[in-house]
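dude i think i finally got it to work??
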Amino acid sequence: MNELERYLQQILADLPQEEREEMHEELYAHLVEHMNDLMIKGYSEEEAVHQVIQSFGNEQSLNQELKRAMFPWLKIVRFVWSVIFVTAFLCLVSYSAMEFYHPEFSNTIPAESVVGGFFIVVFMAGAAEAIYEAINQQFNTKWLRNPWLFFFVPSLLVGAIQSQSLINHPDQYPDGLWLDLFAIPIGAFAYLIARQIFTLLFWNKNQTKNKRRTLIR
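look at this
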């Protein structure tokens, strides 16, 4: 696979098969035409390929632009799904802990607690996503674009700080209350898992054709 082909594959990564095949043919022809023009002007093939890639733009940014153009509702749906997943996961953890420590009680979680937890997750996840998007628009840094590094690492730091309270005052956290100290890293982990599940399910199964924005200007 030549450099130009690898570049195209990265631009079209994770797009539905039908769209990917159609756009590959169109974009490849455009890039080759540009490359041939440069070679006529005296560039070597290697130099022409490099110039074409440089002028066309960053492959990751183009990939994200295509996804936003083809599926403008994707991030909203993913966010709602992830928040619901996290809320359910945290409720399951809480219920399991109560059942473990006090199986003799009825440990049903009140509806108002579930709703309250849902809105807390909405606020925290929404703020994190907004910061993530803002930073990605300002800095084209690979590690910043990794959601696991961006979301999970800070949550682990928060959990580490919180754990000091458990170490210093273990008597204050009986019967599973210590789990409250790690709600943020647990929630962040569940949020990232939900994001990943949604991405895998969506890109692997969704073959609906949508209106797309052409990259050829």
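Residues 5 and 28 are 8 Å apart (CA to CA).
im so relieved honestly
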